[in-house]
## 1
Amino acid sequence: MMRTNGTALSLPIVTTFVKLAKDWIGARQRAHIIADALGFGAQDQTRIATAVSEIARNAFEYAGGGKVEFIAETTVPQSLLVRISDEGPGIADLAEILAGRFRSRHGLGIGITGARSLMDEFVVDTVVGKGTTVLLRRYLPRSAQAITPADLGRVAEALTLRPADPLEEAQHYNQDLLRTLDELSRVNRELQAANEAKDFFLATVSHELRTPMTAIIGWLQILAFPGIDDATRDEGLKAIEGAARVQARLVDDVLEAAKVQSRKLQLDVRNIDLRDVIDSTCSAVRPAIAAKSIVFERVVHDGALPIRGDSERLQQVLWNLISNAIKFTPENGTIVVRVCSDDDTATITVTDSGEGIAAELLPHVFERFRQGDNARQHGGLGLGLAIVHHLVELHGGAISAASEGPGKGACFTIRMPLRQ
């Protein structure tokens, strides 16, 4: 089988025959050595070796033996092609096997379906009564060097150094299985953690959306009473508006997080002055700062701060950081927004004297759904800082967080490249 996307130069590497039980183990051994010599990573080496050994074992068990040919293909992308053929009875139930619906008492079909999942291309050509040929192809990494005849000489040399005893390869096989089990355990732990995070997120969303909705329903019931006075009506309307705004913000956070996850969040990039972004954001948050009697200081060096960016998204970043500082800073506390620059970088810091960040949480503050106990008391979904982190990176910048611990405040630092 040759690919149709170019003329493949096929360079034969080695051909081995499977006549005895130990030979399919030897085929696995050769596959491992060849994959290593051609530049495949450790995981790909194991995938290739396992797929080859499974099909070679099938050839031995069901056809009495066969032939395994290893071929290097130099068409971009380069690949390793393995052709395993036999002259046995063929596979009568191939369609059922490939569909995963057939299991014989001997286990026929497990090797085929498993090997197919390990390779980039997998083709079975079988004729009942005349034999079977299986083609397995795995593409080399794009970073791999071009395969040359000299490389094949080194492969041949590596094959001559292989262990003479196939039992040694069986030991390597067991080691590969152990590494695979470790990898599966790690992936399983990650999936379990992701599932727990999902459950926590759904519970948090339900709680956070229910809270303003309860306030809205409650005030609507109060306002429905006849003869209600103007002061109560005004209070109720303001409470309903505030609750609706909270709900809108929560929904916006969820939608923004979904865009971040799907990489669909877009920027409207223009030439802007970062000072204008800082001025407009600080003006927007001043009422909230005044309501808590927080001492607010803004320190911005003279001179323009020209950057390429999305003005609205950068305001969103600063608004989120300053709003968090307001949320976690007690009355009469302090918040300082400081901006400075050098030849090619603008640095913005938002420092507060608030509740601080625990040491164990600090490395995870920009992860989705990660909140400390004090953050949950203030509400929110734990999405804001994750969105901020993504927006800053989209602008080619970097953001970091620092805190000396609970009760000692926090400092967020953004570094943005200036427009030259």
## 2
Amino acid sequence: MRIRPPSSVPEVVADQGCRLGTGPLWQPAAGLLYWTDAQDGSLYCYDSAASKAAKLNVGEKVIQGVPHRNGGVVLFMADGTLKVLEAAGLKALKMRLSWNPGAQLDAVTADRQGRLLYAVRSAAARSANLYRVHADGRTEEVLIDMGRPSGLGLDPSGGILYCSDAASREIVRFTCDRETGALTGREAIFQVPESLGIPHGLAVDAKGFLWVAVWGGSCVLRLSPTGKEDQRAYFTAKLLSGLAFGGQGLRDLFVVSSGADDRKANGPGAGALYRLRPGAKGAPAPLLS
């Protein structure tokens, strides 16, 4: 399969100077993109229609978030609590994550049934475990020792869960039971060359193709569902750390980057939010119930 350049050039749409840009998510009801700087717990928001970005003051450190069906965003706070950011403000949820002091949240998403999935490593562990949280607050362990999942995403049918493993540099897929959420059949479909970098966030488009941000490689890769690379887009930031489809018709691919504290080494766009119009439509992201 021939590797093609994208149909457009990535553009910087906001520059908040992130040191560790993390977890971009699109809230379709509000038409807003949210992302965080995990280095200091800052939360940012980009209004695509108005082309404006802002830092949101929620009074606490935020790690990542997931869009909620009610139009808000569920935020993972640094102390392991979950809170919903709505128009009226911040509201605590009556549940806690399986969380220990010093734990590292690697990746989060929701499934098609609105259940929460998150991968976390304890302070002493080198490999993460994956947990599922049901609407009633019940938490169950789904997988153990799954490496360092820096991105999670479902295909449009909800029958396949993809994971980018920063430890092995592999893109892995699991068969996902649509009702129970059970995961089986781990299969590595692609490995990012060591010379290129490390896979971080990933997003899935409406045709089931994967878009993978490469940390250290200044690029985003487009892979087929079977793991064949067919597109590669280059950016002016070296450390690309997450991406999400959004905008009108989900035709914009937003990419967050890191390393603004050393732009000489990490590129002039390090720490900025980019928009790429790749000629593909994103698959609607699952919303948390």
## 3
Amino acid sequence: MMLGLALFLALSAGSLYWWNTPSVLLTVDGGTRKVHAHPGTVADLLKEQGIALAPDDFTTPPLTTHLAHNMPVKITRVLNSLEKERVRLPPVIQWQTRTRVNLRRVLVQKGAAVERLRSWRVTRYDGKEVSRRLAKEKTLRHPFFTLTLFNDSGFPLKKYDLLKAKTLKMLATGYYVGDPMVPGDETRMGYKLQRGLVAVDPTVIPLGTRLYIPGYGYSFAADTGSAIKGLRIDLAVKDAKEEKLYNHRKVTVYLLDKTKKW
């Protein structure tokens, strides 16, 4: 009789304990589970479950809330970060010329490439973005000076960065077919003399070098001359009138690359 009473009292006490123990629906780190907790607050529950909060994390309801049976408790992980964004904007063309007066079709452009740098303060709740605020913005301009060669079909063949090309300051003269000082109409490399071909000192500029000369245009080192020594360059022109435009004129010569054909 006494044993039965003791067993009844023990079972009753256990039932009373579980009846007074809140069952909480805990959602954390992408999962939800039902847990039995000692009476107390949400903060006590987290301590009991061994769950740590980062400085920006928060709970719903707040940590000081007392637990109740079947109460949902959600822990929201908060990540604040600084993200950088680089956006390329349309280039600003300050000057350009498209021509095929010398040897082949070319496009010369001068301007600035523009890009915008932005820094964003981004907040994410459990990995999902909830806010994005602009923290800093800066616009950068990168100057460019390029020459693009086209093939016979009109498609770009090669682009040169003239800002990175080697340059020479040279003294120019002009010559043309029919000039009394020009012995023939064939260049040293065997081409028929035409505008765009130039005579150089091969020890300074190797024959077969593509060149660009502002004011004259795209050119090709294909000839030599007895008077063309050192920093001298002779430009093939149309006639005596054009020759006068270049005689004893200082020019900047951009060296592009060495090839077998202009």
## 4
Amino acid sequence: MNHFYFMSLALGGLIFAAIQWLTGAMWSAPVRRISESFVAYLPFALVTTIILFMSLHHIYEWTHTEVVAKDVVLTHKRTYLEPTFFILRNAIAFLIWAFFGWKLVGNSIKQDATGDFRFNMKNRVLTPIFLIVFAVTFTMSCYDQIMSLDPHWFSTIFGLYCFAGLYYATLAAICLVAIFLKRRGYLAGLINDNHFHDIGKFMFAHTVFWAYIGFSQFMLIWYANLPEETGYYLKRFDQGWYAVSLFLLIGKFLLPFFVLLPRGAKRSEWRLIAVAIFMMVAQWIDVLWMVQPEFFADGPHLDVFSIGMTLGFLGVFGLCVSRFLSRNNVVAIGDPRLQESVFHHHQ
């Protein structure tokens, strides 16, 4: 759970930065470096990925030869769901992400040092390639690492569902770090209420986007009513998991939706802080909802150890981000759009 959640935050930071380079966005110049700092977590994500590789036999039932031999569905999937192939393709995907993270963020930092606009142009060439490759590799990783926990179930929209959650939490994390840095004086004179208004609008929009994708996945499975598909949701509507499913509808969607709906909420730092923290916790619960029912049918299992483990991951993520920001400029001072962004305002 924590491996996938925090790895997604790191990748979400890279996605956010890539979109800004691709579109040539002006408003985001003061906060883009924050998203770039999330990529600093990827080396630790590599460690947790290796641990995952070493633990396949304890996590995934399709790694047990005797189970596959007795199961017709798993027998047909054994060419793809094979441990060596699983490790190979996920390792390649991770190396691709690390390469683009190194190149894109590296070019951004070099532009700070030299002011050379060519680094910006290099990133505008690299980002379309990255986004296309990322769409394929991240979808594959979602299928492999999360969906194959129940190898009998499948959803062609599952990768998009995971991406919607990734960006949902990433925007909330960017908002929190931006407010923290502003209050500490690092972004003084560079970021104003209009920037937070735009971040709040994106948080609001992706709350709706996540709900749309989640409903689309559920509605199609409910409508078709095929036994090989409905088992996934029946498991999550039973016993203690029903309350979690209800929380995702009411908490993860409706609460941020209505809180962020007024214009004033998107310009209030305290309300943004509260909603952003809630959204990050809600996404963690969503990942729990995707993972734990495959191991605990009676409901969520949260003890001191699991909460402590999550806090440990959060601490490592925060350490990676803070070390990156302490070693580099908190703002991309080489960005030619920075000066224009400082005076960013809404009509």
